[in-house]
Amino acid sequence: MKVVETIEELQQLINKKSGKTVGLVPTMGFLHEGHLSLVKHAKEQNDIVVMSIFVNPAQFGPGEDFESYPRDLEKDVRLAEEAGVNIVFIPSVKEMYPFEGGIRILPGPQANELCGASRPGHFDGVLKVVLKLFNIVNPDRSYFGMKDAQQLAIIETFVRDFNLRTKIVRVPIVREDDGLAKSSRNVNLTPDERAQAPIIHQALLKGAELHSIGLKPEQIEDEVASYITDGSTGEIDYVKLLSYPSLQPITSETDEVILAVAVKFSKTRLIDNIIM
C-alpha cells in the first residue's frame, strides 16, 4: 500500500496503472467498520482502491466540531492496509485548497432539508471537496455510505446533472450489535449517552412499522420524535419523512421514501435513517 500526501504523486501512481479500474473511498478518517465496508465493496468491483483521508474544513460551519473532530492517522493507515486499500491519499488543507478564487458550487433544494436546514453552507463544502477528489482521482466508481443519506442524494444528483464520469455506489449502513449506526463521532458520547443512543434506530423501526400501515407523514414524525425524547436525554434536531432521493414532500407518485432523524447529545450530534 502506498501513502501519498500530494496530488501530483497520487496522479502519477494512478497513471502508472493505466487501463485498470479505480474505486474511490472518500473519508474524513477515524476509520470504523462502516468505512471498511466501503472498501470491501470497492475491492470487489475495481482493480485499484484509493482512499482519501481529509477532514474537510469547507463543510464545517462556525462553532462546529472541525478542531475536535476525532483523528488517528496511524490507526487509519493500518486499518486501510489491512482492508486491502492500494493507495491512501492524506493531503493537507493547503494541498487541497492552495487558492481561493471565490467560485462556489451551490446545491439545490435537497440541501434545504434535514441536516442542511440547520447547517447552512455545509453541502457547498461537501460538493467542493467531492468535485476536487473526482477530478484528482478520476475514479470509475465512488463509494458512499447510506448513513449520510442526504449527502448521498445530493452527490448522486450532482453527478447526474453535470455528467461526471464516476458511478456512485450506495453502501448500506453498518450498525453496532445494539443497532446504533457506526460513526466516527460515537466516541464523543458519554457512557450514559452511548447506552441511550440505540433508541434512535429503535424509533426508526417503529416509524417504518407505522408507515407500513398507512399513517400520515406528520403522525409518523411525531411518534418517532416522542419515542426518542421519552427514552433519552437527546434533543431532537429533526425527524422527517420525505421522498428519496429528491428529499421533497411525499406524493402519490413517490416510489422510495426516507425516514431520517438527527439527535443532539451533549458533545455530539447523531444522524440515522431508514429507506423504504
TrEMBL record:
<dbReference type="GO" id="GO:0005829">
    <property type="term" value="C:cytosol"/>
</dbReference>
<feature type="binding site">
    <location>
        <begin position="28"/>
        <end position="35"/>
    </location>
    <ligand>
        <name>ATP</name>
    </ligand>
</feature>
<dbReference type="GO" id="GO:0015940">
    <property type="term" value="P:pantothenate biosynthetic process"/>
</dbReference>
<dbReference type="GO" id="GO:0005524">
    <property type="term" value="F:ATP binding"/>
</dbReference>
<dbReference type="InterPro" id="IPR014729">
    <property type="entry name" value="Rossmann-like_a/b/a_fold"/>
</dbReference>
<keyword id="KW-0963">Cytoplasm</keyword>
<dbReference type="GO" id="GO:0004592">
    <property type="term" value="F:pantoate-beta-alanine ligase activity"/>
</dbReference>
<keyword id="KW-0436">Ligase</keyword>
<feature type="binding site">
    <location>
        <begin position="182"/>
        <end position="185"/>
    </location>
    <ligand>
        <name>ATP</name>
    </ligand>
</feature>
<comment type="pathway">
    <text>Cofactor biosynthesis; (R)-pantothenate biosynthesis; (R)-pantothenate from (R)-pantoate and beta-alanine: step 1/1.</text>
</comment>
<keyword id="KW-0067">ATP-binding</keyword>
<feature type="binding site">
    <location>
        <position position="59"/>
    </location>
    <ligand>
        <name>(R)-pantoate</name>
    </ligand>
</feature>
<comment type="function">
    <text>Catalyzes the condensation of pantoate with beta-alanine in an ATP-dependent reaction via a pantoyl-adenylate intermediate.</text>
</comment>
<feature type="binding site">
    <location>
        <position position="59"/>
    </location>
    <ligand>
        <name>beta-alanine</name>
    </ligand>
</feature>
<feature type="binding site">
    <location>
        <begin position="145"/>
        <end position="148"/>
    </location>
    <ligand>
        <name>ATP</name>
    </ligand>
</feature>
<dbReference type="InterPro" id="IPR004821">
    <property type="entry name" value="Cyt_trans-like"/>
</dbReference>
<feature type="active site" description="Proton donor">
    <location>
        <position position="35"/>
    </location>
</feature>
<protein>
    <recommendedName>
        <fullName>Pantothenate synthetase</fullName>
        <ecNumber>6.3.2.1</ecNumber>
    </recommendedName>
</protein>
<dbReference type="Pfam" id="PF02569">
    <property type="entry name" value="Pantoate_ligase"/>
</dbReference>
<comment type="subunit">
    <text>Homodimer.</text>
</comment>
<dbReference type="InterPro" id="IPR042176">
    <property type="entry name" value="Pantoate_ligase_C"/>
</dbReference>
<dbReference type="InterPro" id="IPR003721">
    <property type="entry name" value="Pantoate_ligase"/>
</dbReference>
<keyword id="KW-0566">Pantothenate biosynthesis</keyword>
<feature type="binding site">
    <location>
        <position position="151"/>
    </location>
    <ligand>
        <name>(R)-pantoate</name>
    </ligand>
</feature>
<keyword id="KW-0547">Nucleotide-binding</keyword>
<comment type="similarity">
    <text>Belongs to the pantothenate synthetase family.</text>
</comment>
<feature type="binding site">
    <location>
        <position position="174"/>
    </location>
    <ligand>
        <name>ATP</name>
    </ligand>
</feature>
